Amino acid sequence: MDRCFKFEIATIGDLDLLSEVMVLSISSLQSAYLSPEQISASFECMGIDTQLIKDGTYYLLRHVPDGQIAACGGWSMRDTLFGGDHSAGRDPRLLDPASEPARIRAMYTHPAHVRRGLGKQVLAICENSAMQAGFTTSTLAGTLAGVPLYQACGYSTVERFEYVSSTGVQVPLVKMQKNLVIKSP
C-alpha cells in the first residue's frame, strides 16, 4: 500500500468525514453518468450504514499528510444490499456464509484521490475480510460510475435495475457478483 495512505477500521467518530467523502463522491463522480435529478435522488438510496461500522466491517484509507479520508468502503454479513441508515427496506438478518454472498457496501472515493487504485485496495480489504469470515462469494449494487472498477476486479453483472426515489426519479444500479478466491502470495 502507498505510504501516503493509512488503512483504518472506521469508527463512529469518523462519521462526519465519511459523510463528507460520500457527498463529494456522489455529487462529483456520478455527474458523467447521471442527470442532476438522478444525483439528487441517489442520496435516498446511498449513504453510510452505521451497522457496518458497529460490525467492524467498514474501512477507510486516510491520506497521511492531511488526515483526509481518501477512500472508504465495507462489507456486510447482513442481508441489506445497499443504502444508508436513512434508507427504507434495510434487513439486519445475518447471512449464511455457506450459502449466501457477503455484501460489498458503501464504496466511496474522494474526488481528489480518484484513479490511484484506492478503490481496488478498499475492495480487496473487504473481500479478504469476508473470506476470513467464511464467505466464498460477494455481491454488490454498483452505480454506473462504479461498474468499471468492479468489472476490473472480477465482478460480473447479475442484473440491471433502478431505484425509484420518493419523487419518482429512477436511478440505475447494477447488481454484480464475484466468487472470492484466496490468492497465493
Could you describe the 3D structure shown?
- The chain has 185 residues and is an alpha+beta fold.
- It has a single domain (5-179), classed as Aminopeptidase (3-Layer(aba) Sandwich), CATH 3.40.630.30.
- Helix content is 28%, strand content 28%.
CATH fold-level topology? Aminopeptidase
Helix count equals 5
What is the CA-CA span between the terminal residues?
Answer: 15 Å
CATH superfamily label: Gcn5-related N-acetyltransferase (GNAT)
Number of separate strands: 7
Domains counted in the coordinates: how many?
A: 1
Output the strand order for the largest sheet.
1-2-3-4-5-7-6
CATH architecture: 3-Layer(aba) Sandwich
Residue stretches low in confidence (pLDDT < 50, at least 5 long) are: none
Outline:
globular
The average pLDDT value, as a whole number, equals 94
CATH class: Alpha Beta
What labels describe this entry?
28% helix, globular, single chain, 7 strands, alpha+beta, 5 helices, 185 residues, Aminopeptidase
Describe what is shown at a glance.
The chain is α+β, with helices and mostly antiparallel strands and 185 residues long.
